[in-house]
Amino acid sequence: MAFSALIVQAMISAPGDIPEVHRGAIHSAMRRWNIDHGKMHSIIFLPADWTEGSTPGVAGEYAQELINEQLVDVSDLAIVVYTDKLGTPTPVSGSGTVEETDRFIDAGKEVLTYRNLVPRTPLRGESANAEKLRLEEYLSDVQRRALVGSYTSPEEFELKLQSDLTKIATKFKASLELSTQFTRLPSPAEAALEAIESAAVSPTHTQPEPSDLTEYGIWPRVETSERAESDSRGRLRTRRSYHLVLESNIPYSVEQITFHLEDGEGNEIDMPRVINEGPIERMAPLGKYSAPMFVAMSTPSRVICVVRWQDKSTARETRTTLAV
Asked: Which of 297, 287, 170, 305 is nearest to 244 (CA)?
């Protein structure tokens, strides 16, 4: 069924050494997110890539200006990936990718930056080492202005990006304005909230039954953050922290929320350990719960998070695969 949505143009920005399978993971993550969450959030992510989205033209001072005009300035989100190279310098920046990132940040737009840490044969030679040093220095600098994530497989990258797209969609949804030339129909969540508000003032209305809200639930995700620290020898190290986030899109409160982790065969597992485990007595409408996680080397790269809660007198649950 057709629905109204905000189109968020997401530009893929990366030096030329990004593997094609990783570029494909970005497209796949957006397609999967659009199918699973687009209607609920009234948002669709549209990938834009200079290899496909730019057209020939005459640059003012240098070729990067064309990409800036045709893609950067008209995109809403940048998905940036670095592998081994920072990229070719431009007259005003360390590389075309760096210039695009700075342009997004300066315009107050969203930027998701990732480091490709998939195991591979390291590049050798003086020029390769110099390029790696440029990349490390830049990432140390950009971490002061934005979060930089990392991944060790294309599959992990795809799952992490889907989770990050949900956070981005939440921000865009807060300021969502549809064109006035169309009649705007309420989303399911808005319709449910309107029914609840009507019930408070009119005895002839009742709160919508949970069975009417088949798209709603409490959805888990793993959020990561990274910060640069110096060790006792003054060497720069990256420290990563994890949080398990449970977010409800149910427009009324629910009770007795519990969660646990399972492996792919349905066996309950203890890792990663989550601080403050235990029942959550009550979660507010559209509420969120966050708990720090400890992740060890033995932690599985994927786990299934099972969330259960009481919806009035009905027991409900969601099951979501998480990348750790």
From this structure: 305
pTM of the predicted model over 0.70: no
| Same domain, residue pair 44 and 137 | yes
Judge whether 97 and 87 are in contact, CB under 8 Å.
yes
* Tokens 């497989």 sit on residue: 153
Other C-beta atoms closer than 10 Å to the C-beta of 231 total 8
**Which CATH number does the domain housing residue 248 bear?**
2.60.40
**Tokens 């956070």 -> residue:** 167
Looking at the domain assignment, is residue 202 inside a domain?
A: no
Name the percent of the chain lying above pLDDT 70: 75
CA distance 279 to 255: 9
In whole angstroms, give the CA distance from residue 222 to residue 164: 9
pLDDT at residue number 8 = 93
Domain housing 139: 6-174
Q: Which amino acid is at 115?
A: R
| CB-based burial label for 124 (10 Å; 0-12, 13-18, 19+) | exposed
Report the CATH number at residue 149.
Answer: 3.40.50.10140
**What's the rounded Cα separation, in Å, for the pair 159 and 323?**
6
Q: To which residue do tokens 């994927």 refer?
A: 302
Same domain, 86 and 22: yes
Q: How many domains does the chain have?
A: 2
Rounded CA separation 211/216 (Å): 10
